[in-house]
């Protein structure tokens, strides 16, 4: 799925996929200006006759090693679901992915109000229905929002892989998304991607997803009353934790938050204590919810470590440039790990 301005990138992906016969679908009316829905309709309508599934990748995708072979294996294992192979590091779904990684699960539900569509495969009959569903919508509607609604109407669950098998290229946005900052994967390394998605059951039924809002810099929580509902509501994470009888970030000078902040003296000119508390609350919540879902939390696995390392830069990307400040993020990554560990321990205190 491409646009004439990025045709060369798309052609490179086709060459990289030698032996898998990727086809190019270009914006059918580029003279009208970039519009993801117009091109997405054409891409999802291009299902081969007799195909059981249809994969669409966008031209700003970076393939992990063996990506298309891994897609085929994943489709054989989960033929009745839409499978997503990327979510950006600051998304709600990234938080769900981190919880799944801590629990050792290879898939988790997409919990955003849009469907990450950098690399997405779905059953062919559902793919064919997208064009008709989207036909009456304005062309400037974002395609990932429409895909989300289309799947919901089809009664289909979308799962994201842990780890991600593709990454997002840092290229200029065609639809003015630069204000979002860098948007790489929440859990991608070439080594993890080369191994593919492990076998195992997905993490489903989450009712609480802590989230660092990169837009308004708050620790939020998305909550639903039922693990099968698609209706999420936003609450302040501190309020959700307080209902559980937990204080995640104490300022009395001798708790885990105060101790961890004390090791961040070099960042005092970059981040306020309140912003660090927001980051701590989010990471604490991730650890707590993971521990609620599994009695065997592993913070040392490659997927868990990689996903936790993306939490701070995913949330703070508009404050501290991840590419220009790698040392700052090394300190923040250790801070996040401390907070997650405290969250796991917080769950243990509640259980006892």
CATH class call of the largest domain: Alpha Beta
The major beta sheet can be summarized as: 5 strands, mixed
- Report how far apart the termini are: 52 Å
Order of helices and strands: HHEEHEHEEHHEEHEEEHHHHHH
Model regions low in confidence, pLDDT < 50 over at least 5 residues:
none
- Average of pLDDT: 92
How does the overall form come out from the CA principal axes?
globular
Radius of gyration: 20 Å
The count of helical stretches stands at: 13
Percent in helix: 40-55%
Strand order of the largest sheet: 1-5-3-6-4
CATH architecture assignment of the largest domain:
Alpha-Beta Complex
CATH-assigned fold name of the largest domain: Spore Coat Polysaccharide Biosynthesis Protein SpsA, Chain A
Structure class: alpha+beta
DSSP E strands, number: 10
Count of the domains: 2
Beta-strand share of residues: 5-15%
Plain-language structure description:
This is Glycosyltransferase. It comes from Actinoallomurus vinaceus. By secondary structure, the protein is α+β, with helices and mostly antiparallel strands. It folds into 2 domains: 4-195, Spore Coat Polysaccharide Biosynthesis Protein SpsA, Chain A; 208-351, no CATH class. It is 41% helix and 12% strand. The protein is built from 13 helices and 10 strands. The protein has helices spanning 7-16, 36-45, 67-77, 92-102, 124-134, 143-153, 190-195, 237-243, 256-262, 273-293, 302-309, 311-316, 326-351, and strands spanning 53-57, 61-63, 82-84, 107-109, 119-123, 158-161, 166-168, 208-213, 218-223, 233-236. The strands form 3 sheets. It has a 5-stranded mixed beta sheet with strand order 1-5-3-6-4, with helices on both faces. The protein has a 3-stranded antiparallel beta sheet with strand order 8-9-10. Strand 8 (208-213) and strand 9 form a beta hairpin.
């Amino acid at each position: 799925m491409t646009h004439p301005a990025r045709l060369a990138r798309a052609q490179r992906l086709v060459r990289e996929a030698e032996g898998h016969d990727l086809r190019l679908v270009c914006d059918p009316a580029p003279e009208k200006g970039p519009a993801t829905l117009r091109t997405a309709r054409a891409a999802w309508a291009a299902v081969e006759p007799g195909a059981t599934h249809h994969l669409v990748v966008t031209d700003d995708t970076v393939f992990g090693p063996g990506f298309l072979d891994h897609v085929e294996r994943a489709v054989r294992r989960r033929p009745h679901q839409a499978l997503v192979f990327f979510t950006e590091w600051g998304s709600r779904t990234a938080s769900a992915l981190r919880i799944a990684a801590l629990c050792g699960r290879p898939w988790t539900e997409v919990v955003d109000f849009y469907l990450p569509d950098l690399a997405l495969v779905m059953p062919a009959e559902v793919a064919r229905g997208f064009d008709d569903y989207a036909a009456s919508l304005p062309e400037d509607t974002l395609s990932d929002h429409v895909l989300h609604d289309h799947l919901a109407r089809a009664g289909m669950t979308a799962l994201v892989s842990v780890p991600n098998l593709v990454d997002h290229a840092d290229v200029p946005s065609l639809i003015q998304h630069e204000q979002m900052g860098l948007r790489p994967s929440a859990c991608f390394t070439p080594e993890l991607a080369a191994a593919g998605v492990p076998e195992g059951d997905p993490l489903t039924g989450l009712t609480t997803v802590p989230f660092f809002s990169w837009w308004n810099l708050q620790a939020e929580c998305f909550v639903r009353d039922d693990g099968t509902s698609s209706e999420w509501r936003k609450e302040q994470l501190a309020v959700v934790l307080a209902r559980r009888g937990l204080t995640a970030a104490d300022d009395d000078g001798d708790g885990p938050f105060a101790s961890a902040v004390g090791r961040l003296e070099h960042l005092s000119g970059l981040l306020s204590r309140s912003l660090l508390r927001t980051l701590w609350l989010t990471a604490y919540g991730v650890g707590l919810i993971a521990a609620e879902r599994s009695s065997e939390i592993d913070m040392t696995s490659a997927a868990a470590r990689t996903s936790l390392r993306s939490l701070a830069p995913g949330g703070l990307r508009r404050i501290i440039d991840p590419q220009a400040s790698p040392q700052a993020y090394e300190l923040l990554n250790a801070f996040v790990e401390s907070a997650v560990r405290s969250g796991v321990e917080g769950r243990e205190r509640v259980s006892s």
